[in-house]
């Protein structure tokens, strides 16, 4: 692909960002055109997205199903997302780098969902007792960890609603992907993030009241 020199100014944009490079500008132009030129650009973009999706799916090694089919589905969805958001590309990175992120995200989501297909989502709090690993801990550290885990377990049982408890345990303890949990419970990621945030806030308040504290987890 080529572009005229005038299409790649070295000047800074008003916001202070560099203008997109020639190849990125050409990608946007071709994808925004019509007819055979656009069709060719879409085909080439899909091939790039598929390559990225295959790499991400292979890295995550989903346990069941056709890995290549999973990558194709991810690339298809990523292509739709890129074309839908084409007008939001601002040139902060190369166009292909920007587009790859869509493929990596879709591949990651599909791999996580595949891993949980046919599996029951655990929502019980029994596993909290197994969280500390005492093999390398000193007696003092073991006692402190046991006290903290006991306090967290009591706080979960006494302070949280049934919904908050289920969401916290599934995501934090059992590592259930939030998009999988949202799908199973017929809700949205945003609603689950809100529930998780409220649950953590209650736990921190209860632990502080008991004279204990934990590092706030990233939301």
List the helices and strands and how they pair.
Layout (H helix, E strand, L loop, with lengths): L21 H11 L3 H25 L6 H18 L10 H22 L22 H21 L2 H12 L4 H8 L3 H21 L10
Helix pairs in contact: 1-2, 2-3, 2-4, 3-4, 5-8, 6-8, 7-8
Please provide a written account of the structure.
Helix 2 packs across helix 3 and helix 2 crosses helix 4. The N terminus is likely disordered. 63% of the residues lie in helices and 0% in strands. The chain is elongated, with a radius of gyration of 24 Å. It has 8 helices and no strands. The chain has 219 residues and is mainly α. 20% of the residues are buried.
| SSE-based structural type | mainly alpha
Largest sheet: none
Proportion of β residues?
under 5%
Helix content: 55-70%
Radius of gyration: 24 Å
Number of helices: 8
Rounded mean pLDDT score = 78
What is the approximate shape?
A: elongated
Q: What is the H-and-E element order? A: HHHHHHHH
- Number of E strands: 0
Unreliable stretches covering 5 or more consecutive residues: 1-16, 129-135
> What is the rounded distance between the termini?
42 Å
Write out key terms for the chains shown:
mainly alpha, disordered N terminus, single chain, 8 helices, 63% helix, 219 residues
Question: Care to give the gist of this entry?
Answer:
This protein is mainly α. Helices cover 63% and strands 0% of the residues.
């Amino acid at each position: 692909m080529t572009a005229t020199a005038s299409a790649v100014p070295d000047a800074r944009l008003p916001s202070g960002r560099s203008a997109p490079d020639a190849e990125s500008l050409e990608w946007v132009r071709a994808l925004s055109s019509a007819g055979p030129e656009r069709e060719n650009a879409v085909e080439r973009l899909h091939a790039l997205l598929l390559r990225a999706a295959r790499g991400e799916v292979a890295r995550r090694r989903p346990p069941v199903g056709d890995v290549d089919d999973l990558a194709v589905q991810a690339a298809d969805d990523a292509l739709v997302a890129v074309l839908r958001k084409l007008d939001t590309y601002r040139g902060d990175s190369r166009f292909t780098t920007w587009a790859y992120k869509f493929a990596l995200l879709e591949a990651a989501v599909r791999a996580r969902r595949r891993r949980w297909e046919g599996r029951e989502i655990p929502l019980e709090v029994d596993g909290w007792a197994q969280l500390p690993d005492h093999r390398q801990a000193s007696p003092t550290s073991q006692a402190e960890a046991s006290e903290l885990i006991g306090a967290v377990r009591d706080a979960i049982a006494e302070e949280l609603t049934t919904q908050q408890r289920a969401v916290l345990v599934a995501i934090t303890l059992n590592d259930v992907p939030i998009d999988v949990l949202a799908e199973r419970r017929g809700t949205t990621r945003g609603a689950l993030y809100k529930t998780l945030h409220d649950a953590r806030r209650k736990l921190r308040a209860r632990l502080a009241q008991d004279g204990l504290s934990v590092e706030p987890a990233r939301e």
